[in-house]
Specification:
alpha/beta, two-stranded antiparallel ribbon, 363 residues, 10 strands
Length: 363
């Protein structure tokens, strides 16, 4: 018998990382391996977190601060904080209502949500659940049949999604050994609801690496996508300044500096390490977002100081969902927003625009 969801939230959950052991108790071995694990030896997974700990902040004293305003604007929409929920697939493994529960928690906590192509609830149902004016974006995986891709885009537009986040760093995945050791398989009743009724895509086991790569998107596909929709298009999975420069030439609306949470290629740099050279190359021409390793409000400050406009969290809200449902998601978001405001006050920043490299301690 599975453990009940936490209600009320116990006092020992004071930080978002405190949700992990409660989630572990409630998730199956396979689901835990899928959500918590990375690729191969999980070096990049660990490095995402560890790299933040090597950055120190410069505290300020006696600053006249009339108040702290965490609001920011992305693509013409005001966000309560520079914080969005990253796309995570198959959330019904964590909660019976899956992404519907997450949408409730996101709205209550004041965070935008990015819905995965591989969500376990149809994108239209999630949009109906989400509460305006909470920002709602759709994460897009290119399908081998580009007509299917086009149909997904049209569905997202019709449902009111405000941006497309195209994942570009996973034409194939590396060896997810933790999942293999756990014997991971999707449980009955959980699948990619948005893809129901479409032709199945080839798998590595069914067709081999060459077939998968034959359908992988290229810059031509990004140009095609831009011709298809007026929605802002962000590329998620950019770690190279050269790719960032190409994205600017292609007229992309934004970038997400991401290594897929350490789930595609091991020994990649941490995203916070990859951010500064990309920020230098982009030079403020388009928004930069970052995911990977965010666990504290101080992490958000560090990311913004190094050039990000906002951050995404994945595992922190997913573990909160598994432990406490929508209440947990709202609580996790609230913790991070509160910690962000505290860190801003203690580094002398009244507004998000005040956060600059000067908040980082220099030896």
């Amino acid at each position: 018998m599975s453990l009940p969801f936490l209600n009320p939230i116990p006092a020992q959950i004071a930080a978002v990382a405190d949700y992990e052991p409660f989630a572990r108790e409630r998730l199956s071995e396979g689901a835990w391996a899928y959500y918590a694990g990375g690729v191969a030896d999980e070096i990049t997974l660990r490095r995402n977190r560890e790299a933040f700990d090597t950055l120190l902040l410069q505290g300020r004293a006696l600053v006249d601060l009339p108040g702290i305003d965490t609001r920011t604007t992305l693509f013409g929409k005001i966000h309560a904080a520079p914080l969005l929920l990253a796309p995570v697939a198959y959330q019904k493994m964590a909660h019976p209502d899956g992404e519907l529960a997450t949408a409730l928690g996101a709205a209550a906590g004041g965070a935008g949500m990015i819905v995965s192509t591989e969500a376990s609830v149809p994108l239209e149902e999630i949009a109906r659940q989400a509460e305006a004016p909470s920002p709602l974006w759709f994460q897009l995986y290119f399908r081998p049949d580009r007509a299917v891709t086009a149909d997904l885009v049209r569905r997202a537009e019709a449902a009111g999604y405000q941006a497309l986040v195209v994942t570009v760093d996973a034409p194939v995945n590396g060896p997810r050994n933790r999942q293999q050791r756990a014997g991971f398989a999707l449980p009955p009743g959980v699948g990619a609801a948005n893809l129901a009724g479409y032709p199945p895509a080839p798998t590595f086991a069914g067709g081999g690496l060459e077939e998968l790569l034959a359908f992988a998107p290229t810059w031509k596909d990004i140009a095609w996508l831009r011709s298809l929709t007026p929605l802002p298009i962000l590329l998620k999975g950019v770690l190279s300044p050269d790719d960032a420069a190409l994205a600017l030439k292609e007229g992309v609306s934004g970038l997400v500096v991401s290594n897929h949470g350490g789930r595609t290629l091991d020994t990649l740099p941490a995203t916070i390490e990859a951010l500064p050279p990309i920020a230098d190359r982009v030079a403020g021409q388009i928004p930069l977002l970052l995911d990977g390793g965010i666990r504290r409000g101080t992490d958000i400050v560090k990311a913004l100081a190094l050039g990000a406009n906002a951050v995404l969290i994945g595992r922190p809200y997913l573990f909160a969902l598994a432990a406490a449902g929508p209440l947990g998601v709202a609580h996790a978001v609230t913790i991070l927003r509160t910690e962000l405001a505290m860190a801003m006050a203690l580094t002398g920043c009244a507004r998000i625009a005040d956060i600059s490299p000067s908040v980082l301690w220099k030896k």
